Amino acid sequence: MGRRHAHGCQGYVLGEGDPSAPHKYPDELRERAIREVRTTGRPIAHVTKDLGIHKEALRGWVRQAEADRGERGDRLTTAELDELEQLR
Known about the structure:
Pfam families: HTH_Tnp_1. By secondary structure, the protein is mostly helical.
């Protein structure tokens, strides 16, 4: 079985649970992490270490937040992804 991190999400320790299962982080933690990167300019690796989340998860969240603000042209916005999902 997995271990709970300080922020409340379920994590996995080698030999426990299914390490290939995706982590579901609380929305509040996601928003806090994105805000921390954007407002402080701290490196993603430092923020993830402090908050106990995977750096690639935060990297993706930051990229998506940038797309949603119109700061990136290489990704669909969340609204566009939702619309695409509805069409399928």
